[in-house]
Design goal:
Elements: H1 2-28, E1 35-36, E2 50-55, E3 68-69, E4 71-73, H2 78-85, E5 93-103, E6 110-111, E7 114-115, E8 122-130, E9 154-155, H3 161-166, H4 168-183, H5 199-202, H6 256-259, H7 262-265, E10 329-335, H8 341-359, E11 367-373, E12 377-381, H9 389-397, H10 408-418, E13 432-439, H11 447-455, E14 458-465, H12 481-485, E15 494-497, H13 507-514, E16 530-537, H14 544-558, E17 569-575, E18 579-583, H15 591-600, H16 610-620, E19 630-637, H17 646-654, E20 657-664, H18 669-675, H19 680-683, E21 684-687, H20 697-709
Parallel strand pairs: 10-11, 10-13, 13-14, 14-15, 16-17, 16-19, 19-20, 20-21
Antiparallel strand pairs: 1-9, 2-5, 3-4, 4-8, 5-8, 6-7, 11-12, 17-18
Helix pairs in contact: 8-9, 8-13, 10-11, 14-15, 16-17
Subunit structure: Binds dermatan sulfate and chondroitin sulfate.
Biased composition (Low complexity): 197-237
Domain LCCL: 55-126
Length: 714
C-alpha cells in the first residue's frame, strides 16, 4: 500500500513537472518573424530606424553598390554591405541594421570580396551587425518602404491561425495603406504593423535620464548619453569677461527656477557630445516618429509624415498638420548669456513665440526645437516634442535663462552632432535649418564649427542684435564671423537688427527666408540639384543589342539620383546624322517615369555627327535648365565624329554645362578630351566594349559628387 502511494505521488510529480516544462517551452517559443529583402534593397528605402532582415544568397555582385567602410551611406545595398563588413557571406543570412546620422565622408575599401566606394558625404548612414535582437528592442515583422517600393515583404515562415487572428487589424491597415499608395503616388500613408517579440522582452525597461524636460504626451525612454534628446543641467555660469558688453546688471543673479536644479548638476558632469555613429550600438531605438525620407518622385513639400508611439501607444490628440508649404526641420539657437539681461531675454522669447506662430508648426509642415547656449549648449526641447504652434509658444514662455558666455561655435558643434537625429524627430525628408540669435558677438570662434555643419547639409542663418560699435570691435574674437558662418554671403542668410526692441519687425522676413526651400543652398546635394542631359550615339556601328546596353547604363546612372520637379531632372537626346529629343527635363517628374521613358527609347541607326548633337542638346535641353540647377551633359559614343566637336563643346562649357564623355570601342580619345570639361581626366572615360560600361557608373557618380562638394560657397 505504501509503495503504491509513493508510486502514485511520484507519477503525479513527474506529470506536473512535464506540464510545467511544456508550458515554459510554449512561453519561450513566441517567434520573431524576420522579413526577407532582395539584394538590391538599399537602407534608405526602408523607413524603419532599426530592423532585422534576411538576405538571400547571391548578393555579392558589383551591381549592388556599397559606399563606405564600417559605416555605410544609406543608398548602399543592405545585403552587399553586410557581406563587405563580414557579417554574412554570399550564402545570405540574417543581419541587424541600425540607422544613424549622415557622415561627412565615406571611405571605400576592398573587404570580403566586395569593393566599396568612397563618397564625400551623405545625409543618412547605417551600421550592420549580427542578426540577433538586442535586449529591450522590438523589431518589425514587416518592413516599411518609401513609395518607390511596395510594402509587401516576404516572411521566413507562415503565420499560424493565432498569428493571423492577432494581426487582423494590422492586416486591414496594411491593405488600406497599399490601396492608398497605388491610388495616389504623391500622398502616402505608412501603415502601422504589429510586432511579434519574445515575451521576455516585453518586461524589459530602459533607464531614463536623470533630469529632462519632455512633453508628457510624447514621452519615450531616453539614454543618459543622448545630449540632444534631453536638457542637461549645469553648474552656475561664470561671470562674463569684459570683452562683451554687460547689460541689465540686475539680471546677473541666478534665476530662482534655475537655482532649483543647480544642486543636481554637481553629480551630472557635462560631457562633450559624441559623434552619433560611435555610440549608435548602445542607445535604444526610438520609434516615436516615423521618418519620411526625401523621396525621388515627390516634391519636398509633399506630406507623408505620421506619428507613432512604440513605447507609449497612447495616440497624440489633435495634431496639427501645419503649413505644408514650409516643410523644414528648424532649430533655434537662443542666446542665454548674461550679457543679454532679463528684459532682453524676455523679448527674445516673445520673438521665438511669434516665429512659431507665423511658421504654422505641424507634423506635415515645419517642426521646431530650441537649444539655449551660454558657456555650454543644452536642448530645451527637440523637433518632436511639440507639434502645434500653441503648445510650442507655451513651452517657450517657460524657458529660463541659463547665463554664461556666448559660445556660439560650441553650440553649432552640438547641434551638428546631436540635434538633427532620427530619435529627436529629424525627418530626413525636410531641410535642416539652424537660426542663431546672437546678442552682440560670440565669445568663441564659429568658422570651423559652421563649416562642418554646412557640410552636413545644415542651412545656417544668423540674426545678430546690437552689433559691435566701432569702439568695441577690438573685443570681437572673430571679425566678420557672420560671413564665415552662413551658407552664402549674399545677405539672404543673415539679418542684423539694431535693437532688441525692433526684433519683432523681422519675424515675417525671417519666416519667408527659412521657408524658401529652393534657396536653401546647404540642403542641395550632388544627387538632388542637377539637370542631367544624356546625349546618346544611335549610329549604325552601335547595333541594336549594344544600344540596349547603353540604355541600361543610362538607367543605372539615373536611378542613383533623387528625381522630381524640385530635385534632379533627366533629359535625353539621341543622334546620328540628325538629332532627336527623346524627352526634355520637364517631361517626367518621378524616377519610375524616367526609367520607363529610357526603356522606351528606340534605336535609330545612321551616321555619327557628335558636334551637331552637342549644339542641339545645348539648344533643346540645357537652354531650359533651371537657374539653380547644375547643368550636366553625359555623352556616350562609339566612334569618331563626322564633324568638329571642339567648337560646340567649348560653347557648351561657356554656357555652364559640365560635360562628361564616355567612349566605347572605336571612339577617338582626342575628341573625348575635347568634349569633356576640365580637367579632362576626371570627365572622360573609355571602355573597350559596351558590356564594360557598367564599371564606370560608380566612378561617374562619385566624380559628379566630388565636383559638387568642392564648389566655392559664395
Amino acid at each position: 500500500m505504501k509503495a503504491t502511494v509513493v508510486a502514485t505521488f511520484f507519477g503525479v510529480f513527474l506529470t506536473c513537472t512535464y506540464t510545467a516544462k511544456e508550458a515554459t517551452k510554449k512561453t519561450k517559443k513566441v517567434k520573431l518573424y524576420v522579413p526577407q529583402i532582395d539584394c538590391d534593397v538599399k537602407a534608405g528605402k526602408i523607413i524603419n530606424p532599426e530592423f532585422i532582415a534576411k538576405c538571400p544568397p547571391g548578393c555579392q555582385d558589383v551591381k549592388y553598390r556599397v559606399y563606405g567602410t564600417d559605416i555605410y551611406a544609406s543608398f548602399s545595398s543592405v545585403c552587399n554591405a553586410a557581406i563587405h563588413s563580414g557579417i554574412i557571406d554570399n550564402t545570405g543570412g540574417k543581419v541587424l541594421i541600425q540607422k544613424v546620422a549622415g557622415h561627412s565622408g565615406y571611405r571605400g575599401s576592398f573587404s570580403n570580396g566586395v569593393r566599396s566606394l568612397s563618397l564625400p558625404r551623405w545625409r543618412e548612414s547605417f551600421l550592420v551587425s549580427e542578426g540577433k535582437p538586442r535586449k529591450g528592442v522590438t523589431y518589425p515583422s514587416n518592413l516599411e518602404y518609401t513609395s518607390s517600393k511596395s510594402t509587401a515583404v516576404k516572411s521566413e515562415s507562415k503565420k499560424t491561425e493565432q498569428d493571423v487572428k492577432g494581426m487582423k487589424s494590422a492586416d486591414t491597415a496594411n491593405t488600406s495603406g497599399k490601396a492608398s499608395h497605388e491610388g495616389d503616388a504623391v500622398h502616402k500613408e505608412y501603415q502601422t504593423t504589429a510586432v511579434l517579440t519574445p515575451t521576455t522582452q516585453m518586461a524589459t525597461t530602459t533607464p531614463t535620464p536623470t533630469t529632462t524636460t519632455t512633453d508628457p504626451s510624447t514621452t519615450v525612454p531616453q539614454p543618459t548619453t543622448t545630449a540632444a534628446a534631453t536638457r542637461t543641467t549645469s553648474a552656475p555660469a561664470k561671470p562674463r569677461p569684459g570683452l562683451q558688453r554687460v547689460r541689465d546688471m540686475g539680471s546677473s543673479s541666478v534665476h530662482p527656477a534655475y537655482a532649483s536644479v543647480v544642486a543636481a548638476a554637481a553629480s551630472a558632469q557635462r560631457q562633450e557630445p559624441v559623434v552619433t555613429f560611435q555610440r549608435a550600438a548602445s542607445f535604444p531605438v526610438h520609434l516615436a516618429m516615423e521618418i519620411d525620407s526625401w523621396k525621388p518622385g515627390l516634391s519636398i513639400f509633399d506630406t507623408g509624415f505620421s506619428s507613432k508611439e512604440e513605447f507609449n501607444p497612447k495616440p497624440l490628440e489633435s495634431i496639427s498638420q501645419g503649413n505644408q508649404n514650409c516643410k523644414i526641420d528648424l532649430s533655434f539657437l537662443m542666446d542665454g548669456s548674461w550679457s543679454i539681461g532679463k528684459r532682453r531675454f524676455q523679448l527674445q522669447k516673445r520673438f521665438l513665440g511669434n516665429v512659431a506662430q507665423a511658421l504654422g508648426i505641424g507634423s506635415a509642415g515645419p517642426l521646431m526645437g530650441i537649444v539655449q547656449y551660454g558657456d555650454d549648449p543644452s536642448t530645451e526641447f527637440n523637433l518632436k516634442t511639440y507639434v502645434s504652434s500653441k503648445d510650442l509658444r507655451n513651452a517657450i514662455e517657460k524657458i529660463q535663462q541659463k547665463g554664461g558666455l556666448s559660445n556660439v561655435g560650441k553650440a553649432l558643434s552640438f547641434v551638428n552632432k546631436s540635434f538633427f537625429l532620427d530619435a529627436n524627430g529629424n525627418r530626413g525628408g525636410a531641410p535642416n535649418v539652424v537660426v542663431v540669435l546672437v546678442d552682440g558677438w560670440p565669445t568663441d570662434r564659429v568658422e570651423e564649427a559652421s563649416r562642418l555643419a554646412r557640410e552636413s547639409g545644415i542651412n545656417i542663418f544668423f540674426v545678430t542684435v546690437e552689433a559691435a560699435a566701432q569702439s568695441e570691435k577690438q573685443n570681437v574674437i572673430e571679425p566678420n564671423f557672420v560671413d564665415k558662418a552662413v551658407c552664402r554671403t549674399s545677405g539672404f542668410y543673415s539679418i542684423n537688427v539694431p535693437s532688441w526692441f525692433s526684433l519683432h519687425k523681422v519675424v515675417q522676413p525671417l519666416v519667408k527666408r527659412v521657408c524658401d526651400t529652393d534657396r536653401l543652398a546647404c540642403s542641395k546635394t550632388c544627387l538632388n540639384a542637377a539637370d542631367i542631359g544624356f546625349v546618346i550615339d544611335g549610329s549604325s556601328s552601335v547595333g541594336t543589342g549594344n544600344f540596349r546596353t547603353v540604355l541600361q547604363f543610362v538607367a543605372n546612372i539615373s536611378k542613383e539620383f533623387e528625381i522630381s520637379d524640385t530635385d534632379t531632372r533627366i533629359g535625353a537626346v539621341q543622334y546620328t546624322y540628325e538629332q532627336r529629343l527623346e524627352f526634355s527635363f520637364d517631361k517626367y517628374s518621378t524616377k519610375q517615369d524616367v526609367l520607363n521613358a529610357i526603356k522606351r527609347i528606340s534605336y535609330w541607326s545612321g551616321g555619327t555627327s557628335t558636334g551637331a548633337a552637342i549644339s542641339y542638346a545645348s539648344e533643346q535641353l540645357f537652354s531650359n535648365s533651371k537657374p539653380n540647377k547644375r547643368k550636366i551633359m553625359i555623352l556616350i559614343t562609339d566612334g569618331r565624329s563626322y564633324d568638329d566637336v571642339s567648337v560646340p563643346a567649348m560653347a557648351a562649357h561657356q554656357n555652364g554645362v559640365i560635360a562628361y564623355s564616355i567612349g566605347v570601342a572605336w571612339a577617338a580619345p582626342d575628341e573625348l578630351e575635347a568634349i569633356a570639361s576640365d580637367p579632362a581626366k576626371e570627365h572622360s572615360f573609355f571602355v573597350d566594349e559596351f558590356d564594360n560600361l557598367y564599371r564606370y557608373v560608380n566612378q561617374l557618380i562619385q566624380n559628379i559628387c566630388t565636383e559638387f562638394n568642392s564648389q566655392p560657397r559664395n
